[in-house]
Automatic annotation (TrEMBL):
Protein name as it appears in the record: DSBA-like thioredoxin domain-containing protein
Alphabetized Pfam families for the sequence: DSBA
Domain DSBA-like thioredoxin: 6-216
Coiled-coil stretches noted in the UniProt entry, renumbered to this chain: none
InterPro entries cross-referenced by the UniProt entry: DSBA-like_thioredoxin_dom, Thioredoxin-like_sf
The organism's place on the tree of life at top rank: Eukaryota
Record organism: [Torrubiella] hemipterigena
Gene Ontology molecular functions: oxidoreductase activity
Amino acid sequence: MYDSKVSFTLDTICPWTFIAKKRLDQALEQVRASEAGSKCKFTLHFEPYQLHPDFVETENKDAWYLQNKHMGNPEAQKIFQEHMNGLVEPLGTRFNFGGDMGNTVHAHRVIQHFQEKKGPEVANKLIDGLYRRYFTEAKHPAADSTLIGACVEAGIDEAEAKKFVEAKDEGLRDVKSKIRMISMDVDAVPVVIVEGKRRDITLTGAKEVADYVKTLETIAKESG
């Protein structure tokens, strides 16, 4: 069986990566249960990207979107919010547009550390926990409590998680370097790269479930 690495480049405050991750999860579930799943093992791997690397530590989410994305137009913001919920409701969730947003570098630091130490399944659960807390529970994306809670939910010992989360300098230089390197090739997220025996396929933007299924099946067919 061919082992295909599925690289998912994201920022934890990007709603399009949240949508793409849910759709990709559905596609992976379908393909793993199909004949293609017997030919190819797909393993998710997460790559860090920051939409706003110089972003402040904390900013009111609703106020920031109103000023920076919708030119101070509340009606435009309302239409945007309704549209985004229309996209995620079929995926079984809704956005909560309240709460604070902020710089995500420490979220990426934690993700990359535990992905390396604990493996892809733990990293996948950690991503899902961070996404849910920020997008549906309106929690700060990089607060210690958010990060520690998501770690524990992913199966990481609370004391271990707390020790790393609170050691702000540990792994910080490495993750900043990785973000800079990825930013040389990526200017928008999500980016999904599915590696195959004959070729790799890259999908940019939040694609439909069917698009991800087609890509996974193509890689399985060519690599099986």
